[in-house]
Amino acid sequence: MPRRIEGEVVRLQCRSCASIFHAFTFSGDTDMVTGDLAFATRVDSAELALAEAPSADRLDEDDGAREALEARIADALGRPGFRAPRLLRFEEPPPPPDPAQWQHYRAAKVVYQCIACPTGEAVEITRLSVRAFVRSSGRINLLGDLVLDQAGG
Ligand SMILES: [Zn+2]
User: Fold this and answer.
1) Does the predicted model carry a pTM greater than 0.90?
2) Where exactly are the structural domains of the chain?
3) pLDDT value at residue 104
4) How much distance in Å is there from the Cα of 12 to the middle of ligand 1?
5) What domain of life does the UniProt record list for this protein's source (predicted)?
6) 28 C-alpha to center of ligand 1: Å?
7) Do residues 148 and 56 lie in contact, with contact meaning Cβ atoms separated by under 8 Å?
């Protein structure tokens, strides 16, 4: 039975090598909904692969789990080169010069380990709806029975 998922695309750029790649933030009402979902991405095209992964909750600490996911995605798509980046932290934006702007919600930016260079950190530069990502020539590969909800944006 198909499983409907939703979320948004985060465009990242490495502070060291300037490579651009994408992350996917799954959204759901509780962790139970998205806790077994994972993504992989690549630097040579605006592309993501989304998959169910029992190890999704320990990918950031477990190199072996990331490599296994990357191998499974390469196998399923018949193409190597997808990488599961490691989430390093969330970064608070600097305070605005004008205190009146505090009333606006300022979301923390995600920082991932770069997948193109050994020590670089890739920081969020923008967020896109799935629809906007696909419209800008992005591509999302779905593994298994996943179906992506493209509502909004
Ligand atoms: Zn880099």
Assistant:
1) no
2) 3-148
3) 60
4) 10
5) Bacteria
6) 30
7) no
